[in-house]
Design a protein that fits this description.
Largest sheet: 7 strands, antiparallel
Number of strands: 29
Strand order of the largest sheet: 1-6-7-8-9-12-11
CATH class of the largest domain: Mainly Alpha
CATH topology of the largest domain: Glycosyltransferase
Radius of gyration: 26 Å
Structural class: alpha+beta
Shape: globular
Helix content: 25-40%
Distance between the termini: 10 Å
CATH architecture of the largest domain: Alpha/alpha barrel
Number of domains: 3
Number of helices: 15
Strand content: 15-25%
């Protein structure tokens, strides 16, 4: 295996989902002279800093560079013999380790040196291979939205005899036709499932590349992050790349949707915003019928099976009333109606649930997992009823008030009634209410959240990589910034043996390999910008190890776009643009006097909203700027200086 050693990942090579690299640039050694020029574009500077390089051909699919456009996915790695380079092609629904279509480049000589470079900024792979008979250079890309592979090949010496041949087709009816033509010193190969598209693309490969580059540059500008830890920052940008290269854009909408899309402005990539997204059962969130639990089979609960949290999150990011009226509220009515048939009134005056399955743990009455989903659905239904001016809100308010509270004990929230957390639980499904549902946690409930999280985090015998991603989100929600950072560091350090997340604990499925590292990317964002319970929080749980941080263009609930910067552990300024005119309650976290200004620097009216918080009326399209007195916001994002990442040499 050619992936980096564990210590290399800690030094900044977290190439999750793209192939772990023997990375010169990521590890911090001096870049080539052409790369040392000062770049004025912060987006380009930060994305190029996350580039990856290989000094030997990757052998495993988890270590191989990935090119893709959300429909077609291409991984490039060493072939069955040293003189072969395999371009393995899969449709995005295919499992990463499934038999692949594609092409093999057969070199004329035996390789003596490799230099591979995945440029995230242009989303293309370049490689120089020196052999006993000459040299081969190629550049490969998958033009976004075209379902094509384009490879430009240049040879020296006897490597002019290098040739292409198809991989054996893994299944009938799925050919991968290709054509190659010579243009001056270059050989240009274009391949794809549609022979007509291949033929048309050969007529204008440069135009396709220009369109491709423009698309990716726009993609990276839809959200910016720079922190004083280059390992974390590079990891974030690799996941922004992966979100467009490998995520299925027609994926079924289930559970909580694609992670990492919840705070960036990549709404077009979210299947939940599609006009008619498909729904499907989630493969590992199941509850069975109340009263039967898992004994009746692994039937999914309707709330996650229909992807209602994902649809609700998509609605809140854009405040699209059509989405609310036509899709979300009707589905919420059905989901809540499903559970009302099973609720039982007991002598305490509360409505209780008979046994449901708390995922990966036990069948229990009043399962906290199920109660949390029902509470969330009722809250969303009440809000949608109010916003749309529909009747029936009193009924839902009454039902929400009578639902049994979460069963609790000395160590916080239980799995369910009479069932405390007694063993290591890698999925923390009983803490769904804390994260990702993010129920409001005022007063005593904040302490309950900390105790519940602490109990779960104290039992790690059965944890695996994805458990640490879950732990990072839970710690951030509980206000434990240092622990959230520690969990992320542990996850990143475990990526040294491969690129994509390797499913553990019996999990299977193509999406798992992508979703776990993307969820880790979202956990990074949760430490910097958060929005739940009607409050926008900026730098809510930023660890002290990140004293400097910059974010820009992050989209949060209420259709707000947020820019902010902090230095020396203190927030300097925050800029918020409103797209929908929603009320803004901003927990800015600034100490001392603040100024609240409009875009032109004139004072704006505001009211205190609590300690270090402000209520600011904003109309649709208006922007407000908060600053510490005497500070002024930057006109654009600025990369911060790395204070945490060790510098290191090449590890191959």
């Amino acid at each position: 295996m050619t992936g980096p050693r564990r210590r290399t990942v800690l030094q900044g090579t977290a190439a999750v989902g793209l192939g772990a690299a023997a990375v010169t640039g990521l590890a911090g050694t001096p870049a080539r002279a052409a790369d040392r020029a000062v770049r004025t574009d912060p987006y380009e500077q930060s994305v190029r800093d996350a580039r990856m390089e290989w000094s030997s051909p990757p052998e495993d699919w988890q270590d191989a560079p990935c090119l893709g456009d959300g429909v077609l996915r291409v991984q490039v790695r060493g072939g069955a013999a040293p003189n072969l380079v395999a371009f393995e092609v899969r449709d995005t629904p295919d499992a990463w380790d499934a038999p692949a279509r594609g092409l093999v480049l057969r070199l004329a000589g035996t390789p003596t040196a490799h230099a591979w470079h995945l440029d995230l900024w242009h989303a293309e792979l370049t490689a120089t291979i020196t052999t006993t008979r000459g040299r081969v250079r190629f550049t490969a890309l998958v033009p976004h939205g075209r379902g094509l592979l384009i490879v430009r090949l240049t040879t020296e010496g006897a490597e002019s005899d290098a040739s292409w041949q198809p991989l054996p087709a893994p299944r009938a009816g799925h050919p991968f036709p290709y054509r190659e033509e010579t243009a001056g010193p270059d050989r240009i190969l274009i391949a794809g499932a549609d022979t007509g598209a291949v033929r048309r693309a050969l007529a204008a490969p440069e135009r396709l590349r220009d369109e491709h580059v423009r698309w990716w540059h726009d993609h990276y500008r839809r959200g910016y992050l720079s922190v004083a830890d280059r390992t974390v920052q590079r990891f974030y940008w690799t996941q922004i790349y992966l979100s467009a290269a490998a995520l299925r854009q027609d994926a079924p909408v289930t559970g909580f949707g694609h992670p990492l899309l919840g705070t960036t402005d990549h709404t077009a990539l979210d299947p939940a915003t599609a006009h008619r997204p498909r729904t499907a059962s989630h493969s590992h969130l199941y509850g069975g019928l109340p009263g039967i639990g898992s004994k009746g089979g692994r039937a999914p609960d309707p709330i996650t099976a229909w992807g209602l949290p994902a649809v609700e999150a998509a609605y809140r990011r854009g405040m699209d009333e059509e989405l609310l009226r036509e899709r979300l509220r009707p589905a919420l009515l059905k989901a809540v109606g499903f559970y009302t048939h099973f609720l039982v009134a007991e002598p305490d005056g509360r409505l209780h649930l008979p046994a449901t399955h708390s995922p990966h743990y036990a069948d229990v009455p009043d399962a906290t997992h199920t109660l949390a989903l029902l509470r969330w659905a009722l809250s969303a239904l009440i809000d949608s009823t109010r916003r749309l001016g529909e009747s029936g809100a009193e009924r839902w308010h009454d039902l929400a008030a009578r639902i049994a509270p979460y069963p609790t004990g000395p160590d916080g929230v239980l799995i369910g009634r009479g069932t405390p957390l007694a063993r290591s639980h890698p999925y923390a499904s009983h803490l769904l209410w804390l994260h990702p549902l993010r129920e409001g946690l005022p007063g005593e409930r904040a302490e309950l959240a900390r105790r519940s999280y602490a109990r779960w985090a104290s039992l790690r015998d059965h944890w695996h990589s994805s458990s640490y991603v879950t732990a990072a989100g839970l710690a951030a929600a509980a206000g434990e910034a240092g622990e959230a950072r520690s969990h992320l560091a542990h996850f990143l350090s475990g990526l040294g043996d491969g690129g994509l997340y390797r499913p553990e604990g019996g999990e299977t499925g193509d999406e798992t390999a992508v979703s776990v590292p993307l969820a880790a990317g979202q956990a990074v964002l949760d430490l910097l910008v958060d929005s739940w319970g009607g409050t926008l929080r900026v730098f809510p749980a930023t660890p002290r190890e990140w004293p400097d941080a910059t974010v820009a263009g992050l989209r949060v609930a209420g259709a707000f776009l947020v820019d902010a910067a902090r230095t020396d552990g203190r927030t300097d300024w925050i800029r918020v643009r409103s797209e929908a005119g929603e009320p803004l309650l901003l927990d800015h976290g600034m100490e001392g006097p603040i100024e609240v200004l409009d875009e032109d620097g004139r004072p704006r009216p505001w009211q205190p909203g609590g300690p270090r918080a402000a209520r600011i009326p904003l109309g649709r399209g208006e922007t407000v700027v908060l600053t510490r007195r005497g500070r002024r916001p930057a006109t654009g994002p600025r990369p911060v200086t790395d204070t945490a990442t060790p510098r290191a040499g090449v590890v191959s």
